[in-house]
Amino acid sequence: MSTRTLILLRHAKAEPEGDHGDADRPLAARGRRQCGLIGPQLAGAVGAVDLVLVSSALRTTQTYELIAPDLEVRAHETRAEIYDAGPRDLLSLLREVDPEAGTVLVVGHEPTMSGTASLLHDARDDLAKQVSLGISTASACVLDVPGAWAELDRSTAHLRQILRPGE
């Protein structure tokens, strides 16, 4: 079985909550710029993406819409449950991914993106320390998943790299 790739992307910088609720916060101008930087990095790091799972929050759907032109995406789904998901909830969702999917991108929120990367990572190294502190907006954790999606659990993947806009 070939190694799968999981990318956990935190949405780009959003406007403060203001008059609208948290789920309806749009991207800030800085967030739009971040998308222009991280999209090409993702494309270079992972190539084609079989499935993108996007939180239903406005800032995550806008992040996906702005990076999508840089990626070769075969399918994408907006999933409301990602908005409130914790790492274990996200793992449950990922275990249901089609076994044929080789590369999956999740566009979601903190602290779930870094928490999930930390939970899955199989080593205590510098990258583990970095994700334990959280990831900044428009940053992505790229993990190698040697087993099936259905077998995802603690320490069953390897955090290969963290991509940050502008790096």
Summary, kept brief:
With 167 residues, this protein is α/β, with parallel strands linked by helices.
Can you characterise this structure?
The protein is an alpha/beta fold and 167 residues long. It has one domain: 3-Layer(aba) Sandwich (Rossmann fold), CATH 3.40.50. It contains six helices and six strands; from the N terminus they run βαβαβααβααββ. The protein has a six-stranded mixed β-sheet, sandwiched between helices. α4 crosses α5. It is globular, with a radius of gyration of 15 Å.
Properties at a glance:
6 helices, His_PPase_superfam, Rossmann fold, His_Pase_superF_clade-1, SixA phosphatase family protein, 167 residues, Mito_Ser/Thr_phosphatase, hydrolase, 6 strands
The N- to C-terminal Cα distance equals 32 Å
Query: What share of residues is helical?
Result: 25-40%
The count of DSSP E runs of length 2 or more, i.e. the number of strands, is: 6
- The tally of structural domains comes to 1
Low-confidence stretches: none
CATH topology (level 3) name: Rossmann fold
**Portion in strands:** 15-25%
* Estimated structural class: alpha/beta
CATH homologous superfamily annotation: Phosphoglycerate mutase-like
**Major sheet summary line:** 6 strands, mixed
CATH architecture: 3-Layer(aba) Sandwich
Report the radius of gyration as a whole number of Å: 15 Å
Using the alpha-carbon principal axes, give the shape.
globular
By CATH reckoning, the class would read: Alpha Beta
The number of distinct helices, counting runs of at least 4 residues, comes to 6
Topology as H/E string? EHEHEHHEHHEE
Looking at the chains present, what oligomeric state does this protein adopt? single chain
Name the average pLDDT. 95
Strand line-up of the largest beta sheet? 3-2-4-1-5-6
